Amino acid sequence: KNQVEQSPQSLIILEGKNCTLQCNYTVSPFSNLRWYKQDTGRGPVSLTIMTFSENTKSNGRYTATLDADTKQSSLHITASQLSDSASYICVVSGPGTASKLTFGTGTRLQVTL
Amino acid sequence: ETGVTQTPRHLVMGMTNKKSLKCEQHLGHNAMYWYKQSAKKPLELMFVYNFKEQTENNSVPSRFSPECPNSSHLFLHLHTLQPEDSALYLCASSQDGGRGEKLFFGSGTQLSVL
């Protein structure tokens, strides 16, 4: 069964600190992996997409990594800001249509003063 | 804004009520989706429409009835719901439902069934 597991479930960090969120998946075959950010009361918004051949991709202070051999991805947030407080969802796509996505349960990040 | 608008944002209904959720996308996309998001659970795909045709029904109970009159509008008609149907209902769209496409989500309707 295709699964996506994220850790930690929740995380509290001080503003300005860095953090790393983890995503392990068992989806096979693999097409791509996306990280979404979901603010409270809003829908998820795509941050990055990574395909099989990509190891690292950055979007501002967000850097995603992918190890397709171990089926692991991470999302690193640098110099966190209060606006980074949100849920971060890892989504893995297998072959086929966009409906064939496996979602993680997300990591709830809270950035405090 | 993501270009996907959902109304209402919040809805409280009794188990005998009938209500509808509305979604509109202004992105020129051809695929639209309904997802259910419950606390501490992954998003659950409910329905997929591609070029107005329903291409997927993920074993959703018949008390949820989707309607897609055109590629820009999607409705979810609700009737005789159960308390366990309380959740955030998200609408999404993508270019044409292709592999691994980016989904654009609306802000969702927070539904409470009493």
Helix content of chain A: under 10%
- The global form of chain A is globular
Mean pLDDT of chain A: 93
| Main sheet record of chain B | 7 strands, mixed
- Based on CA atoms alone, the radius of gyration of chain B comes out at 13 Å
| Helical residue percent band of chain B | under 10%
Output the structural class of chain A.
Answer: mainly beta
Percent of sequence in beta strands of chain B:
over 45%
The profile of the biggest β sheet of chain A is: 6 strands, mixed
Ends of chain A: how far apart?
Answer: 41 Å
Count of extended strands of chain A: 11
Mean pLDDT of chain B: 92
Structural overview:
The complex is a heterodimer of chains A (113) and B (114). By secondary structure, chain A is mainly β. Chain A has no helices and eleven strands. In chain A, the strands form two sheets. In chain A, strands 2, 4, 5, 9, 10 and 11 form a six-stranded mixed beta sheet that branches. In chain A, strands 1-3-8-7-6 form a five-stranded antiparallel beta sheet, with no helix packed on it. In chain A, strand 9 and strand 10 form a beta hairpin. Chain A is globular. Chain B is an all-beta fold. Helix content of chain B is 0%, strand content 56%. Chain B is built from no helices and eleven strands. The interface between A and B is medium-sized, with 25 and 29 residues.
